[in-house]
Amino acid sequence: MQSNNYKLAVDTGGTFTDICLLNQDTGQLVNRKLPSTPQDPCRAIMQGIKSICSETGNDISNIIFFLHGTTAATNALIEGKGGPAGLVTTRGFKDILYIGRQDRPHLYNFKITRSEPLVQRHMIFEAAERTGPGGEIITPLNMENAREIAHKLKEKHIKSAAICFLHSYANPEHERMMAEIICKEVPGISITLSSDILPEFREYERLSTTVINAMVQPVIRSYLVQLQQELQGERFKGNLFIMQSNGGVISASQAASQSARTVLSGPAAGVLAGKYISGLTGRENIITADMGGTSMDMSLISRGKTQYTNEGHITGHPLRLPMLDIHTLGAGGGSTAWIDPGGILKVGPHSAGADPGPACYGKGGTLPTVTDANVVLGRLSINKSLSNITPDPEAAQNIIKKRIANPLDLTVEEAAEGVIKVVNAGMIRSMHVISTHKGHDPREFTLMAFGGAGPLHAVELARELGAPHVLIPPFPGVTSAYGMLSANVKRDYIQGFIYKLETGIIKKINEIYRQLEEKALNDLAEDGFIRKDIMLYKHIDLHYTGQSYEITMEMPAGTLIPGDLKILKQSFHQAHNQQYGYMKEKAEIEVVAIRLDAIGKLPSPACKNSRKGSISPSPTSERAIIYEGKKVNTPVYERNSILKSSSITGPAVIEQEDSTALLWPGNKAHSDSWGNLIIDLEV
Amino acid sequence: MQINPVTLEVLRNALQSIAEEMGAVLTRTALSPNIKDRRDCSTAIYTTSGRLVAQAEHIPLHLGLMPDIVSAVLKKIPLENMEPGDAVIINDPYISGSHLPDICIIRPVYASGFPIALAANLAHHVDVGGCTPGSMSTMSRDIFHEGIRIPPLKIMHGGKLNDDLVNLLSNNVRTPEEMQGDIHAQVSAAHTGERRLQELARRHGINKLCHCMENIITYTERRMRSAINSLPPGEYQFEDYLEGDGISNMPLRIAAKIELIDGEMKVDFTGTAPQAAGPVNATPGVTKACVYYVSKAIADPELPGNHGITIPVHIFTPEGTLVNPVYPAPVAHANINTAQRITDVILGAFSRAVPERVTAAGTGSMNNFTIGGTGRESKFFSYVETYGGGQGAMLGQDGMDGVHVHMTNTRNTPVEVIENYYPLQVEKYCLRKDSGGSGKFRGGCGIERVIKVLSSEAGVSISAERSIYSPWGLHNGLNGMTSSCCIQKPGKQAEEYRPAKFTTIVPEGTIITLKTAGGGGCGKPEERENEKVKWDIKNGFVSPEKAKENY
User: Fold this and answer.
1) Interface touch B28/A428, C-beta < 8 Å
2) How far is CA B511 from CA A90, A228, B487, B495, B504, in A?
3) pLDDT tens per residue, range B138-158
4) Which of A490, A496, B9, B513 is an S-S bond match for A200, by CB 3.0 to 4.6 Å?
5) Does A166 sit within 8 Å of B415, measured CB to CB?
6) Domain map of chain B by residue range?
7) Which residues does chain B have within 8 Å of residue A425's beta carbon, measured at their own beta carbons?
8) Pairing of strands A446-450, A286-291
9) Chain segment A453-486, per-residue pLDDT in tens
C-alpha cells in the first residue's frame, strides 16, 4: 500500500539515533535504532532514514513532516564549540555575567568552582546608555561610542554578538539602535537582543539566556543548512521541525535564529510521550522515568498537564526560557558501584558509559556496573542484548565478587542485589523531589518507565514510591522519537510588564496581548499554519508585591474587562494558597510578565489498537532470577505475545528487542488497547 | 544490631530525602522572603537522644548549629515529659547557640507509642523585636536590646497549637503576620517529617530504623576519623583580628590552636579577646559551627552532615571571651562577621598542617548593607543585602571573583529588582580590578556597588570587615585589597569610612560606594605562569601597572 502521508521523528542522542516512521493513514509504525555519528550527526540520520524507507518500500518524498530532536546546541555548549561571542552591556555593568548571583556551587568543597563564564571579559563592551525601570531614557545611547564598540567587535572577528541593556524589557529602543549600528559596521554578524529572546526582568538570567543563544546560533544554523541540503538531495519535500525544551517544535528557520530553544530538548520528547499516552489512556497522573546508560530523566504529569520551569540551567549557566520541568540524575545501566571510605556501598554518579562499558560487555570495562549486577541476578538475558553484544555472565560475576562482595563480606548475589537497591534508592530520592516535595502523592500516579534500562527497575521503583501501576510503552527504547510524533508547533512569547494589578492597566494589558497575538499569528503563518489550526493561550505572571517568585496564571480568552480582574485576583489567591500554603487577600498583587503561548496544530498520530485476544501467552523459555536472596525459576515471554486482556502473573520476564521488563512475584501484567504493558503491583 | 552496608545506604537516602522534603515544605510555605528565597533555614532528623542523623542545610553555619540544639533542649525538657503531638519552640542563644532571629521548632516522633526520633527545623525570622527593625542592631549592649528570648516551651501540645504563646510572641515583634506564618510553616514541616518517619518505621520496623540511625552516625564518625588520620599529626596555631565591635574600633583578637592526634582533633581558643560590649560575640554554638565547617571542608567535603562529624572534634572555648560570651552579652552580629573571622583563623591553622587543602583568606565578611527610609507614595522601604567578594586562592587554583565565601551563600538582589522596588539607582555593579591578591594563584576580585539614594532621606547601615587588616595570602602570596566604603553627599566632599561599620542618615542624591575585599593570593607572584598574567591583563582583572609591580 503506497501512501504519501508519512510523519518521521528522529531523535539524535549522544549514543544512539532513534527513528520512528508513522503512516498517518494506517497508523502503522516502524522503528530503527542506530549508533549516532557525533562528528557528523547527519550521517546517522540519513543512513537511518534510507534504511527505514527501503525496508518499508517507501520514498523520502512521501514524508510530509519531519520532526527532529538534536543535541547539537547542547553539545556546542558542553564542548565549548559555540564561541567566541561578543557581548554589549550597559556602562558600569560589564560583570553581570561574572558575578552572577554571587553564590558558589558547593558549600564545602573549595575545588568545585563556578563554570567559566561563556564570554571572555575582553569581549564584553560597555555602551554609554541608561534606561530606567519604567522604560524612561536616563542617558541616551551615545552613537559615537556605539560605533567604536562595533569597530572593536569587527577587529576581534566576532561572528555572533549578544546585546543586553538594563531594563530593556521595558524599553528595547537602545538595544535595537545598538544592533542597527553593529549590523551596519559589521556585515554578516549574527545578533541576539535580550529584548527579543527574553524580555523579562532580572538582568543576570536574561543576559545569560541571550549569551547562550548567541553562542549556539551559528552552530545550529550551519547544522540545519547541512541537514536540509542532504534531505533535499534525497528529494525530501516536507516540513522540517525542530524539538524545543518547552515540549513543542519550531520550524527549522526559527530554530536557526532562536537556537537556545533547542538546548536541553532531548529529554522533553520523552515527557511528550508521557503526555500523549496520558491523553490516550486516560491515566491523568504519570511519572515518566527514562533510564538509559548514564542518566535518568524524570518528570511529572498531573491531571494530564506537564509541569514547566523557568529555572533551567545548562553547564551551570541559567537558561530562563520556559521548559518542561525535568529532573536528571546521573544513574543508569552503566553507573559504576564502589565502596566509600566509611565502608558503605555507593553507585554512580560515575558511569562506564558505552566505552569501556560494563565489565560483562568485554570491551575493557574493569568496574562493576548496574548492568553487571542485573546479569548476575539473571534479570538481563545473556542470550541477546543491544548492539549485538552478548553479555558474559562470568565477567559480571567476577567483577562483582572482586570489587563488591569480597570487600563487604557478602555473597555475590547479595552484593549484586545491593547494587540494584542502592541505585534505586538514589532514583527514589529524585522521584520524591519531583512528587512529594511539590505536594503530589505518588500513590495517585502511574510510573511510566522507558529507556533501555527503565522497565527492568520499574517494579521496584514503583513499590518503594508507592505507585500502584507501572506502564511500559510499546517501544521503550525509542520512546522519545515516539513522543515527538505527537508534537505540535509551540511558540511562547513573553513581555516583562511590572505594574500593580488594577483596572487602570487593563488597556495596556489588552494592547500587549494584541501585539503578541499579531506577532504569533505572523510567525505561525510563516510556518504555513492557517488560523483555524492555531490556538492561543494567554497567561500572566503575578506575585504579591515584594516577592521574588511568580505564579503563572491562565487568563480568560478574549479582551480583558474589569470584571475579569476580580476573578483573576481570586484565582491568584487560591493558587498561592494551594502552592505555598497561605494567601494574603489584602495584599497588593503585581503583574511581572505577560505571556502568550501559540500552538500550531500538526495532525495527531492515528493510533492503532493492538491485537485483541484473551489467550494466555506461553513463555518462550525460563531462567533463574534472584529476588530478595531467593532464586526463582522465571518464565520468559516475548513482548508481542502479550495481547490485550491477556494476563500474566509474576514472576516473569518480558523481553523485546531493545528492553527487558521484570515482574516480581505476585505482580500482574496485561497489555492495554494501545499496546502499553501495564503492571499492577500488589498494594 | 549490625546493619549491612546496603541497607545503611538505602535508609540513609530515605532519611536524607525526608530531611529534604521538610526543607521543601518549609521554604514553600514560609511567608517571609528570608526563608523562602534566601533559604536561611535548615531541617533535620535526630535520634531520641538528640543526636543529629540527617540534615538539609542551605547555609553552612547551620551544619554546626544543628547538632547541639536538640540535646541542649532535651536537658531542659526530657523526652519523658513529651508526648505524641507535642512540639517545642526555642531561640535562646544561651541554650540553642545561634542568635535570636533563628527560631527552632522540635517535634518528637512516635511509632506504635514509642519515641523513634525527633524532627526539627531552624529558620531566620524577619524580626524578633529589640531596638531596631530586623533585630540586627550594630549597637546593642545586651541581649535584651536584640529581641524576645524564648526558652524551650511547648508550642504544640497534644496536636494543638498553643495560640496564646503564638500571640504573645507575635505581639512583641514588628512583623507579627510574618512571624505567625513562618511558625506555621515550621510546624507543618516538622509534621511532614513525623509522617514520613512513621511510614519508614512501618516499612522497615522500629528496631531496624533506630539501629540504622545510630549506624549512620557511627559510619560518619568512622569516615571523619579516617579523614583526620590522613592529616599530619601535630600542633598548629593561628590568630587574626576583628576590626572592632561596632561600638569601639579596638581590634579584637581571635586565636586558636589545633592539635591533631590519633584521629581526633582538639581546637583551643585560649588567647582570644574577652567578650565585647557590642553584638559581635559568638556563642559556643556559632564558634563550633565554624570549626565543623572548616573540618568538613578540609577533611572530606562530601561527609554527610550529622553528629558523627562532631564526635572526634573537641573544642575548648574559654568562658567570657569573644567565642564564648557570658549572658547577657549581645550576640546578633557574630553570624555576619565574627563567624567569618573564626573560620579564617581555623583555616590559617590548617594551612600549617595541609597547605595544599586550604584557601588564603577571602573577603572575610558577609558585607551587610542596609538602606531604609520613606520612598514613593510615603511608603517605608528597607533594602537589605549581603555582598560577596573575592575568594582566597589555593595551591592549584585562583580564587573565584565576586562570590560569597565560607559561612554564607545567599544570592544577590538583581539591579532591576532594586530599581523597581526601592527609590535607589544602581550606578555601577562590577568586579574591582587589582583587588585580588597577587600570587602564583591569584585571589578573587572583590565587588564594587555604587548606589544613589533617590528618596528624600535615608538611614544607611553598613557592617563590613577587612578594611584595615587585608585578607592574608598564603605561601608568599600577597594579601587581597582591603574593603572600603565611601559616602558622597550632594555638594560635599566624599567621606571614607574605615572600619566600614557604621549607621548614619544621608540626604537625597547621596552616592554610596561599597567595595568589598579581594581574596588573598597563594604562592610567589613571580612564579605565576606568564600566560595567566597576560590573560588577567587582557581581561582587565589586573592592571598592567600592578602586574609590573608584583609579577
Assistant:
1) no
2) 19, 57, 6, 11, 13
3) 888 999 999 999 999 999 999
4) A496
5) yes
6) 5-222, 359-551
7) 9-10, 13-14
8) parallel
9) 899 999 999 999 999 999 999 889 899 999 999 9
